Amino acid sequence: MDNKIEFAQRLKDGMVAAGMEPRPGVLLTQFNTRYWGRSVTFQAVSRWLKGEAIPAHDKLLVLAEILNIEPEVLQFGEAIRKTLQERKQRWEDGVGYLERETFDAYLRLEPKARNTAREVILALATAQKTNHDK
Predict the structure, then answer these.
(1) Fold of 3-80
(2) CB of 48 within 8 A of CB of 8?
(3) What CA–CA distance (Å, rounded) separates 125 from 108?
């Protein structure tokens, strides 16, 4: 399915869940009363709801606030929540005191030294992968 169409469906579903009719005029009023930038047009909101366009990030944040949905879920769907949780869990499970100490030391390095450290780590990881593949 097209990302724009999927976004439009999430937007409509979010409107219904928030007790709003999924119509451009309804969303237009709610949006323009909360958005600090230049007002959007009826046509722009219609394009969002028809799956013809996805709003810019600043507008997406306002839509998410109106609908009480996390911006990343509105833009990418529920699957993104699981992916983010898995990545976070990987860091929580795999990073102990020694790794955190190493990361802190890395962050104190000058940019040139950070690049050297990164290259060394990537070379070690590549060598390890090559040895495991044999």
Answers:
(1) 434 Repressor (Amino-terminal Domain) (1.10.260)
(2) yes
(3) 22
Residue 39, classed as helix, strand or coil, is: coil
- pTM reported for the whole predicted model: 0.64
Q: Are 31 and 40 in contact (CB under 8 A)?
A: yes
Where on the phi/psi map is residue 58: left (φ > 0), alpha (ψ -120 to 50), or beta? Answer: alpha
Domain boundaries along the sequence of the chain: 3-80, 95-133
Q: Which residues contact 38 (CB under 8 A, 6 or more apart)?
A: none
Listed in sequence order, the residues at least 6 apart from 23 whose beta carbon sits closer than 8 Å to its beta carbon are: 49
Distance set, CA 32 to CA 55, 65, 83 (Å): 14, 13, 32
**Which stretches of the chain are assigned E, i.e. beta strand?**
none
Dump pLDDT digits (tens) for 78-98.
Answer: 887 787 788 888 888 878 888
- Give residue-wise pLDDT tens across range 28-77: 999 999 999 999 999 999 999 999 999 999 999 999 999 999 999 999 88
